[in-house]
């Protein structure tokens, strides 16, 4: 069943969720991430560490919604692959922080570029009016992302 643009407002959340889910699944795999042997969970953790690091493991677990045991294994794998490293917490000598290494930052940037390139090619396939509609929708989508941040709803 195809939903048209004239569908009732009540269909908007479901259509938006479905469209965002499809976009996410299609953008998630990257040649660089696959070549590095990274699963979607490892890619997500690497991106979060790169964005928020240095970060404590407890904060990382909360941010990603991953149990500490699984997180410890993934962090160990990423550290073994020299994508992240553990560093001492200057505020608390008993605690450790994780941060991306130079190689980890390079990989994150390559994956980001690959995803941007894929989106650029896909946008080229849209009509000028469709591209303008997406550009006009960006502020609302960015605001929506903020509304959903941290599971406030």
Task: Please explain how this structure is put together.
With 153 residues, the chain is mainly alpha-helical. The chain has a single domain, classed as Arc Repressor Mutant, subunit A, CATH 1.10.10.10. The protein contains seven helices and three strands; from the N terminus they run αααβααββαα. Strands 1-3-2 form a three-stranded antiparallel sheet. It is globular. The two termini are 30 Å apart.
List keywords for this structure.
153 residues, single chain, mainly alpha, Arc Repressor Mutant, subunit A, 7 helices, three-stranded antiparallel β-sheet
CATH class: Mainly Alpha
Return Rg in Å. 19 Å
For the biggest β-sheet, the strand order reads: 1-3-2
What's the number of extended β-strand segments? 3
Order of helices and strands: HHHEHHEEHH
Count of helical regions: 7
**CA-based shape:** globular
Number of self-contained structural domains: 1
Question: Helix/strand-derived class?
Answer: mainly alpha
Summarize the main sheet.
3 strands, antiparallel
Would you summarize the structure shown here?
The chain has 153 residues and is mainly α. It is built from seven helices and three strands, in the order αααβααββαα.
Could you outline the blueprint of secondary structure elements for this entry?
Elements lengths: L11 H16 L3 H5 L4 H13 L2 E2 H8 L3 H13 L3 E6 L2 E9 L1 H23 L3 H21 L5
Antiparallel strand pairs: 1-3, 2-3
């Amino acid at each position: 069943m195809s939903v048209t643009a004239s569908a009732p407002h009540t269909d908007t959340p479901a259509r938006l969720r479905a469209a965002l889910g499809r976009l996410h699944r299609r953008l998630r795999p990257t040649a660089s991430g696959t070549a590095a042997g990274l699963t979607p969970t490892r890619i997500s953790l690497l991106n979060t560490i790169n964005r928020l690091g240095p970060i404590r493991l407890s904060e990382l677990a909360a941010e990603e919604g991953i149990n500490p045991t699984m997180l410890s294994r993934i962090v160990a794998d990423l550290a073994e692959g020299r994508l992240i490293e553990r560093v001492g917490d200057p505020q608390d000598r008993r605690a450790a922080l994780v941060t991306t290494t130079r190689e980890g930052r390079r990989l994150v940037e390559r994956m980001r570029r690959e995803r941007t390139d894929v989106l650029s090619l896909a946008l080229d396939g849209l009509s000028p009016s469709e591209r303008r509609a997406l550009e006009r929708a960006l502020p609302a989508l960015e605001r929506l992302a903020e509304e959903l941040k941290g599971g406030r709803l």
